[in-house]
């Protein structure tokens, strides 16, 4: 759940401060062992697309899993070609000398099942019909992603992740990892996330889905078969989401009430604010790169996620199963996943006697802050990861 | 290691679970972990100190003590510690009550404002004392509730807190010799071990 490749004025300065992973190419693997899903259906086979950065050490103890958020995918760092305009979505934090230091760690970044960037999802062909899955693609839960990622770990020979890291929806996956496979990770980093969505969160997601499904080109989800695309609906969905990922203060600082066209002079009817054109640009860009059914599927997985539901709604009982150490980070102006949601996680972990550290980073950038340069965030994240690296060396 | 932290270690049971309020750079929790097999968490609000805790591998949670300890249930820790932070709180007595609710016992250390050097400074220069231990001017100090050894004893009596141990420490001369006889005058740092 974030702006893909958000840009800020600070971006260029910090991009040069540390190294890039350079040119990268996605890998893909077709898993032929059937995967039982939480919804009761079975995927007979499926493909996962992923990228890796850094080198897996001989002990296979330095692997880091990056779980992506709503609109993210496998391209987390570096560039696909020298003339790529923008690097992967988390390039500020993955690379040589960065918090997730690729000189130390072997980083694995998959595109989730149900995604629209190469992993099996609604845009893939349903082998039973020979047509795109579309709306018939099985509903997915966060745990399904975790199980499919565990198979990817098996494939790569990784028995235990040094760290599983995720922001937002990615943080939910990281937490689910700690409960589903407690022995398979040593650290869990959860950034700007929550144990479950609030009614307000679900309301925003529903509004976004309604925007998509009420587009005349949606065709009940079978738009690919009909050679159509509900672009406008998806663009509106993205605009709604985008507003919620930023803060009032952040938007005000960046756009204020500046006009792009027209003037406030009396007698002038048409004006366009900068924020309008910015939002439209975000919506348009997104709707040409993302699949509407995937958006619906992923927001439903978000809505459905409830870490403690099957533990008697007791997050302490849930986390009592975890065996790893946790780092939690929240951002002060994030109202979509407010710091209070992260404090609830910290409280539950402390009550369960699980090692945890929690920091609340001062930021005006709202939910998107987790992807943007921030001195305190970087320093803290780096300190945590260096500690993980020290532990690793201690075990060698 | 600060001298009050040395004393505290002696009062904490091996393998116990400790909450350290205003844990600073995490030095105490790190030592308690290494020397006494203690587990626990530190609460801190200073960003730089939080990072230092993380560097040390000490569990630290960003939390403002003035907002209370309402997120912790009764008796969830063996010992709740607060070193050199009492004087920075808005409502120190309420925080101590909370410490005794959340922990079985609690340990508190604070600078003794009744120490002769503070008295001397105020009496003869007519200005608020500024020293190594209290290196702030009156207008920018985080310390808003200074008290003396004797003041704290009065509070303990009024609130019916049981004093398990008490000690004053002093790193400077001549306090080291006389602090046993005149703790309020010669003790630099007061250390209290309380229970309900």
From TrEMBL, chain A:
The active site is at 168 (nucleophile), 334, 367. Pathway: Amino-acid biosynthesis; L-methionine biosynthesis via de novo pathway; O-succinyl-L-homoserine from L-homoserine: step 1/1. Residues 62-371 form the AB hydrolase-1 domain. Keywords: Acyltransferase, Amino-acid biosynthesis, Cytoplasm, Methionine biosynthesis, Transferase. The record marks 336 as: Important for acyl-CoA specificity. It catalyses: L-homoserine + succinyl-CoA = O-succinyl-L-homoserine + CoA. SUPFAM superfamilies: alpha/beta-Hydrolases. It comes from the Bacteria. GO terms for molecular function: homoserine O-acetyltransferase activity. It is found in: Cytoplasm. Its EC number is 2.3.1.46. Residues 1-19 have a biased composition (Polar residues). Residues 1-20 are annotated as: Disordered. Its main location: cytoplasm. Substrate binds at residues 238, 368. Transfers a succinyl group from succinyl-CoA to L-homoserine, forming succinyl-L-homoserine. Belongs to the AB hydrolase superfamily. MetX family. HAMAP family: MetX_acyltransf. Homodimer. This is Homoserine O-succinyltransferase. It comes from Microbulbifer spongiae.
From TrEMBL, chain B:
InterPro entries: Methionine_synth_MetW, SAM-dependent_MTases_sf. It holds the Pfam family MetW. CDD domains: AdoMet_MTases (cd02440). This is Methionine biosynthesis protein MetW. The lineage of its organism: Bacteria, Pseudomonadati, Pseudomonadota, Gammaproteobacteria, Cellvibrionales.
